[in-house]
Amino acid sequence: RMPRVILLPTWWNARKMLREQFEKRGWEVTEDSSLLDSAEPAVDLTWCSGRDVPWHLVLEGKMRSSLYYLKTCINRKADMHRMIEKYARKFPGSQIMSAIPRTHIVDLVELQEEEEELCDHLENIKHELEKDGNLWVLKASDSNRGQDVHLFSLDEIAKPKMMDILKSSQSNVWLLQRCIDPPMLYRDRKFHLRVLAVAKGDLEVRVHKNIVVIPAHSQYTKRDGMVDRYAFLTNHCIQSTHDDFSKGKSLLLQDFCKELIDEGKMAGFASADDLFQHFFKKICDIISEVFASSKLCPAGFFPLPHCFEIFGCDMMIDESGQVWLLEINSDPSFALYEGEKLEPKLKEIIEDVLDFVLDGGAASKHQDGVSGDEVCNDKTWSSWWTENSNLTSVYVAGFPFYKREKQNVTAQGGGGGEREGFPCVHARPPKYEGFAGLKVLRSLLRTSALVNKECKTSTITSFSKTGKSTCFVQKFTWFSEEVTRTLSNHQEICMREELQFETTSIQICFYRDVTWDKVLKGQMLSNHYHMRRGLLGRVNLFLLLDAAEQQDLMPVTLRLKVDVTRDDWKQHLADLLGSRDVAWRVQCMHETDGYKITSVCSCTEELISFLKDNGGSKSIVLQQYLTPPPQLQAPNETLSIKVAVLAVGNLQIYIQQDPTICIKRVDGEKNTCQDTFCLQSLETHESSSRGPIYDLLRSWGQVIRRELSLCVEKVFDALSNKRTQFLAMPNCFELFCFTFALSVDREGKPCPRLLKVESAMEVQDVLQGQQQLVATAVELALSGLGVLSSTCETQ
Asked: Is the peptide bond preceding residue 326 cis, with omega within 30 degrees of 0?
């Protein structure tokens, strides 16, 4: 049959032109969206919005799409900025940061986690922004079509108008970006450029020469410090709300260059064509480096061999002629190409794009979807470059960073099969052969925020084709000898003394040494979860429990920022604490010497005195100090309970049946000693001679165990829908240590209160002397993940 495409673009003129061009190439065109509802739709290519694409078929390699699935590092403003910053740090020779206006990311979620006031944060960065200009654009990271874009002067930052916008919006991540001032003007009006970049497969990127200049409807003027929004924000959707809006004011960059030369404003260039080539080369350089940097962030941009996408790049030219990149948009509107001058140029663009992306026919289908093993492309960059003689690229491959040109990139294209005015600006050899990359992408999605909550841990069986799983246990860890000895007794596991990335399937080590790229692809099993900050951070954990209305499980825990150099810092601290005039356990870093300070302050006044005596601290963690009940009070003694909790896959929870009791004593000389014992030992041995506290703990044994289990269950329930705080991955497990203080309720029954959670395999002291417990936990976890066939006894 003829190859079939379903067309659902939003702008009718573009739909008409696309239909004409597809039919000209022998494609059957349909606009019947109901076809996509069938299990096996007879469609080879979808050209529609992301919400209409049947992604399950695209990710199985059975259908092509005009969109990529993962591209947040390209079309989300904050993610793109972070990616480019990372790339510039890794490759100092890059010039990309000089083409990005000064940008500051305001992440409301991070500020909430750090207990930092939004207004204080904006006031702090305000001083940093002073040297970069007076006008700033505030825009949401995920906004488009001109939504959530606002203009502020420096004096208006952190003022009520900006605060209301940030607090009332649905967006959590915002950018404060310097407004390019003074800009180059077109007939006394500010403008920006809309550049179309087309990415195909994995990966080739081309930039089209038909670049549109979009001018403002108001003249560029400032009066008494006031600015006209329509004069500064040139977005098409914003300008379309102007009272005098009319279509057809946009023009091509070539025509604008001709006006500049005719007016004698660019004396350094002999002709309009020279000036256009100058701008076009700069534009190509910038877009090339953006896509080159994407190789550092495969989870943010994962190009697929059977997909392509048109990106709309918004750029500006300042008064000196420098080109700036503002943002890149996915699925750009073709409504910009209205009018008798631009509509023929849109037809040229569509012809060039289809010639580039179709490659002569329908998508080649894999009969059973994607199967087989992941196969990496073993072609060297040099051999691939030699074979593809038609490519003219500025930053080819982009990793490692270096510049190589076969010939200069110009608007005339590079010949050798390239369309005139549609040059390749970035290309790299495919990372995977054929459809093998789809398997990697699906593994990545299973271990990301998009993970399927219904995924069962039983889907993880063995990590080796030979029937044995090869395991590496990091030496010099406090538990390594016992874990190695225990796992060596199992026939299903082959122990390795050195980490071999290609063959090792189980890695047991410190968090910082985990080979995360293998774990995130599902190729290796780890003894740590990648995302667990909501559990290990005391402040984060309290906020999550508070949001889940389980704040009674944990004493009030806050993070505050205090600057003792301020005249009003004492009053500021008192205002922050409000009516909570209780005892506080304080933890902070000494501002000068850098060592950690921990102390207990009985009231707010004592806390103020402590901070003053220790030179102050910009960041302190306060946790309400729980005074022991009368039954458990003893001079210079504190009591805590530690219990090991094992999390396996996504998600099985095991809790230690015999928790550890720690009684710390401080003598008059400030020397400390610790009495550590298991709860079960109190129940099986006479201990009345040790004191009344021990008798009380023995009588409470069963109640303490039950309350500890309930508390652990409630903690993981609170984390269940917070995947950015704790993400349970099917090929991971981790042993945690929960530390509790013991209080009593109104009826005199024991009531454990959670103080903190630590990773037991990271810190030796938390489960001191319990190496066998750790080994048993590892054995139990591997059984739960299907690596070991034998079941382990729970302890």
From this structure: no
Please provide residue 388's backbone torsions phi and psi, each rounded to the nearest 5 degrees. Answer: -100, 75
Chain segment 473-527, per-residue pLDDT in tens: 887 677 788 888 888 888 777 777 776 656 678 888 888 888 887 788 778 889 9
Structure tokens at 648: 């396996």
Helix (H) or strand (E) holding 284: helix 272-293
Dihedral in degrees, nearest 10, Cα atoms 664, 668, 671, 675: -30
How far CA 706 is from CA of 477, 657, 752, 756, in Å, comes to: 32, 10, 10, 19
User: In the beta sheet, which residues pair with residue 623?
Assistant: 557, 585
Beta strand 4-7 with 45-47: parallel, antiparallel or unpaired?
parallel
The rounded distance, in Å, linking the Cα atoms of 773 and 656 is 9
Residue 405 reports pLDDT greater than 60:
no
Model confidence pLDDT, tens digit, residues 275-319: 999 999 999 989 988 998 888 887 788 898 889 999 999 999 999
Rounded Cα distance, 641 and 646, in Å: 16
Tokens of 715: 């903690």
* Neighbouring C-alpha atoms within 13 Å toward the C-beta of 96: 29
Structure tokens at 572: 């500021």
Query: What are the b/e assignments for 406-428, b being 16+ CB within 10 Å?
Result: eeebbbebbeeebbebbbbbbbb
- Give yes or no for a contact between 219 and 188, defined as CB atoms under 8 angstroms apart: yes
pTM of the entire predicted model? 0.58
Residues in the chain: 795
Structure tokens at 422: 């549609």
Closest residue by Cα to residue 33 from 20, 19, 24, 43: 43
pLDDT digits (tens, 9 = 90+) for 5-16: 988 765 667 888
Mean pLDDT of 214-219: 83
Residue 303 CA from chain centroid, whole number? 18
